[in-house]
Amino acid sequence: MRIAVQSAPFDSAAELAGFGGAGAGAIVTFTGIVRNDSGEMQALELEHYPGMTERAMTAIAEEAVARWSLTDVLVIHRYGRFAVGEQIMMVATAARHRKAAFEAAEFLMDYLKSRAPFWKKEIGPTGENWIAAKEADEDALKRW
Amino acid sequence: MTEPAGIEVVYFAWVRERIGLPRESITTSAATVADLVEELCAREPRYAAAFADLSALRVALDQELSDFSAPLAGVREVAFFPPMTGG
Keywords of this protein's UniProt record, alphabetized (chain A) (predicted)? Predict the structure, then answer.
């Protein structure tokens, strides 16, 4: 298991070298990149709560490992200032079978979105705007 | 009311911007998070502005998500922030 909160970019290929664990038969990876929702975004700023972020991410990852019997899990989440198209976070799950790996990856993403203490701010030509959480994000947790 | 205790209060995102500082050490006798919010709001309008709508806010006690009715006894760090937007 590897949990990382960092401002530096990551190399997903390098991160996945050696990832999997004993007994793995399937690996699912997800990479989130900065999207230009408004079409006018110049940068995205991500603030986080040092200490709580690592704790929350570890707790979420441990729950995924327990529920889907994962053989390995990787969560990297960046903070700081980003340009459109930059990689912001990645998740990898390894399990004996693909269904568990896919489900665990979705679970991780749903929980990281609403339970990991990050806040996004969009920087545009007319000013700055905190991105509000969506009700759908909270609803997404109910299926787990 | 409980015995006055020193507590770290931290703010994130627009709560931090509205209050104008990222953290402060305060001494309080507040028994619950809600009591602490009331105490802060009585201080200055910028606190009242940040805490105007509690349904738009979340609270963490010693880095664990909690709620406004939670007791503060033994708590060292209280954090206020909007709903999280990770991922």
Answer: Molybdenum cofactor biosynthesis
Among A36-45, A83-92, B25-34, B65-74, the least confident range: A36-45
Range of the domain at A113: 2-143
Q: Would you call B68 an interface residue with chain A, using a CB distance cutoff of 8 Å? A: no
* Phi-psi label, residue B57: left if phi above 0, alpha if psi -120 to 50, beta otherwise: beta
Domain boundaries, chain B: 5-81
Element at A105 (helix H, strand E): helix A98-115
Superfamily of domain B5-81: Beta-grasp domain (3.10.20.30)
- The pLDDT of residue A39 is 87
- Which chain B residue has the Cα nearest residue A91? B87
Across residues A88-101, what is the average pLDDT? 98
Judged by a CB distance cut-off of 8 A, whether residue B36 touches chain A is: no
Cα dihedral A26/A104/A48/A128 (nearest 10):
90
Q: What is the ipTM of this complex?
A: 0.93
Cβ of residue B86 closer than 8 Å to a chain A Cβ: yes
Q: Cβ contacts (< 8 Å) between B87 and chain A: which residues?
A: 32, 89, 109, 112-113, 116, 118
Provide the pLDDT confidence category of residue A36 given band limits of 50, 70 and 90.
Answer: confident
Nearest-by-CA chain B residue for A134: B85
